[in-house]
Write a structure and sequence with these properties.
Layout: H1 5-22, E1 27-30, H2 37-46, E2 50-53, H3 57-71, E3 75-79, H4 83-86, H5 89-97, E4 102-108, E5 134-137, H6 149-159, E6 167-173, H7 223-236, E7 241-245, H8 252-262, E8 266-268, E9 281-282, H9 285-289, E10 300-304, H10 311-319, E11 323-327, E12 342-344, H11 348-356, H12 367-387, H13 394-404, E13 409-413, H14 417-425, E14 432-435, H15 446-455, E15 460-465, H16 466-471, E16 486-492, H17 504-507, H18 510-518, H19 525-531, E17 536-539, H20 542-555, E18 558-564, H21 567-588
Parallel strand pairs: 1-2, 1-3, 3-4, 4-6, 5-6, 7-8, 7-10, 8-9, 10-11, 11-12, 13-14, 13-15, 15-16, 16-18, 17-18
Helix pairs in contact: 1-2, 1-6, 3-5, 3-15, 8-11, 12-21, 13-14, 13-20
Length: 591
Amino acid sequence: MPVDIGSVNITFCATLVDEWVRGGLTDAVICPGSRSTPMALALAEDGRIRVHVHHDERSGSFMALGLARATGRAVAVLATSGTATVQFHAAVVEADLDRVPLLVLTADRPPELRGIGAPQTIDQIDLYGSSVRAFLDAGPPDPAGAGEWRALARRALAATCAGAPGPVQLNLPFREPLVGERLDLPAPDEDGVDGGVDADADADADRDVDGDVDGDVDLDGDAEIDEELEAIADLVSGARVLIVAGGGIDDPEAVLALAESSGWPVLADPRSGCRRDHPAVIAHGDAILRVPSALLEVEVVIRLGAPLASKVLSQWLAATSAEQILADPDGIWRDPEGRATRRRRAAASRLCTELREQHLVAAPADWSTSWRRADDAVEVAIAGLLATETRPTEPGVAREVLGSLPDGSALMVSSSMPIRDLEWFGSRRSGVTVHANRGANGIDGVVSTAVGVALAGAPTALLIGDVALLHDTNGLLGLDARQVDLCIVVIDNDGGGIFSFLPQRSRLATDRFEQLFGTPHGVNLTGLANAHGLPVLEATDDRAAGAAVAAALAAGGSHLVLVRTDRTANVALHDRLHAATARAVEGSLVD
């Protein structure tokens, strides 16, 4: 009896989906196409998976990334064969560098159609190169291999979270017909996964994340680790230590507990979860580091999480003579300055707990309090200067948006100036989870990422510039029907505002600078938002922007708040803010 290829395709995909659900998969993003039909039907008809359909593959993949980032769970994203799969690449790169679990499903033509000019057929083998934790090619479904289908599913899902979380490409070649009747699924392997995934994926499915850096440590608690910990404890005990906390901190409470017991300030990125109202927390480290003072006589820096956006911090880390300890749960050497002298392969919470248990001698009594006194002075200076502004300001809007959000909400921040304004000028704030695509620091896919974050269920605001919005206007497709609470705050300065801070601005003639860097677009953003069914509020000052966000989230649904600013005036305001904060730091140091 001839094999019913359509039914085999459908049954194969249904088996994979059933195993993924058993492993904890809850969400999938489907981008429409023909060759992906068997998997699209299996995902849509399972009933246990939330399916989110997106017309555009690039936007759809970033939406999946945002959802995975917000939930911490792998999300599947599916595309048909050909260039549709290429559109996933930017999101795959971001997921790789920022360790977001993503199950990338690429439908494909069968092997006999490759390399002969068949339509919508490209080379999808290892399409994303080293950016994926694993590449798996399923081959055309064959009933003779049905006993291995569940193992394939487990292996693909497990590889997204084994070691450093990240993306996995599962290539799915299908022969026609693409539709058939679902047959009985192979029975689950009760000796395999039962309600979770096996973190020990096959060795060749895991990427080596250790690189070639010396000093890797075993995590089994042997004498070597004890000696390393003792060495670190000896180094920090009684020293002037500065904790730099970036994004990806697993337990902010553990970091703050160590800081409080040891008298160490915590220079906290908004994404770290540590920038809350705590005596040790420093919100304006960028401003403090701009002023030569005794505060910079740091003896040891403990670096946790991802690098911050601040160039001032990066330059200081590159120049300081302080010992630098880098902690990372996956042993990845995130040290762009090349100055880290010790590495601890451990999560932030583990290292902080280990050090607390060493009963360290606290830092000098005024060490943390002096940092905090300077930080408080900077906060007063920022608030005072911005209070005199009668027109909207980009730093002021960043502060007001953060302050307007209800507890339990999320804030997505775009790259370029929004992330810097929040990092430099944002206040300490508890109860809000801050997200940003800072793996590759791109501005593509930001709207879609925010939609994905909102799909996780929390009221969400997005702070974004006009150019980044235009990079991802397809992220607005079908937004109203997704039933999320999302307020998009757009800073519209008619071009690329961040370039006005670079040397190109003063070295080039105005016309040439505007042509290549300022790039005014002239797009009516209100009309664009209305075309997607979004109501628009225009803020006339900083406080109005915050009030509009609060009102939009209280009303529910999706809204856009438009804030018009001027690029030249924005540079001048930043200069005044930096001058005012420098004076504040200097004043805080006077006895």
